[in-house]
Design goal:
heterodimer, A: mainly beta, 11 strands, B: mainly beta, 7-stranded mixed sheet, 4-stranded antiparallel sheet
Chain lengths: 114, 114
Amino acid sequence: DQQVKQNSPSLSVQEGRISILNCDYTNSMFDYFLWYKKYPAEGPTFLISISSIKDKNEDGRFTVFLNKSAKHLSLHIVPSQPGDSAVYFCAASKWGGNTGKLIFGQGTTLQVKP
Amino acid sequence: DAGVTQSPTHLIKTRGQQVTLRCSPKSGHDTVSWYQQALGQGPQFIFQYYEEEERQRGNFPDRFSGHQFPNYSSELNVNALLLGDSALYLCASSSPPPRRNEQYFGPGTRLTVT
């Protein structure tokens, strides 16, 4: 039972354009969501998070949007840079972010072309 | 400030053998979580330790066990290895609540079972 799904295995965008990565979840108990980036031979690196009491959180070029009614979140990267090329995972958690048990999606490989 | 470290980097074992993987958390972190990442999948939560006790467990059999030491470092043990245990094993550390979900990952240990 895949509670967190990233339905696009890969995404290719041109440098300078917007990258939009999508994530859907099924468990309505999830109330804290995170995005991680992973380069080959490295562990995932935390990017940005959002609590279910918000619908948007920004950090520099990265913005996460949460649509609770649709159980959908997205990560926008503007402008995209070649160094953003990596695998992006969304993750979800319960109980306001205090559990430390993250449920991950399958990942989306982003390629940013120069 | 050293981040999360894991050893060994790579490991090759034979079916039926036992393996121990090690993790040192980031300075100031008291919680260690272990994840298994199969090829092409997102990380899957195995279990979490803090205060030297297992606090949460994912859907993994009892062949997977762990330990946390007084200095917060941790071990993951897998007995009776199966071919399906071949994966990247990630260790993540975090602070006490309310930041327990903000996990910092190590580079992982690549386990191959032949």
